[in-house]
Amino acid sequence: MSTAPPTSERAAGEDAPLARTVGRKVLLLFVVGDILGAGIYSLTGKVAGEVGGAIWVPFLVAFGLATLTAASYVELVGKYPRAAGAALYAHKAFDNPFVTFMVAFTVMMSGVTSAAAAARAFGGDYLAEFVSVPTLVAAYAFLALVAVVNLIGISESMRVNVVLTVIEASGLLVIIAIGVWAVVTGDGEPSRALDLDPGDASV
């Protein structure tokens, strides 16, 4: 005996829209967390070691490039309000399947490398401050944990993202406050902000 639901019920189920679980505020925090990223903590010292006290210069350049990218996306998403991102825009611009594929593949690979960098930073610099664990083991465990959270559901993964974004942003605010306090109390050296000598940077 067949237990398949009637055709009308299957059609209704297939046509049912996905439930909206991500609001504007949560989406905003998701974007903020994506922009900040884990690299802001793991790369700052390395950048300072390369450029010295003028560490703000490369970050300012990166900010300028990111602003241009954001402005482009704002313009394009208003013209093509569909889910596909850069691949859709490349397809509309060039109408070439190979170019569209390469853009989509590049975007996908950028996500993979970003996840790998975050896992490497977590397993190396971050976790090493608390416990001694092989970097690769910790990195794989981090990726597995992220995968499990995403598999549980979009709502749960977004909640975790909100918590982590708040923690990350709070840490940056604490660092900024410490820097301001050091300058105000005379412990800091504002003149070093213009030094481009890596030898003057403490990493």
Automatic annotation (TrEMBL):
Pfam families: AA_permease_2 (PF13520). Keywords: Cell membrane, Membrane, Transmembrane, Transmembrane helix. PANTHER family: AMINO ACID TRANSPORTER-RELATED, INNER MEMBRANE TRANSPORT PROTEIN YBAT. One of its GO terms (molecular function) is transmembrane transporter activity. The lineage of its organism: Bacteria, Bacillati, Actinomycetota, Actinomycetes, Micrococcales. Its main location: membrane. The chain crosses the membrane at residues 26-43, 55-77, 98-119, 131-153, 160-184. GO terms for cellular component: plasma membrane. This is Amino acid permease/ SLC12A domain-containing protein. It comes from Cellulomonas cellasea.
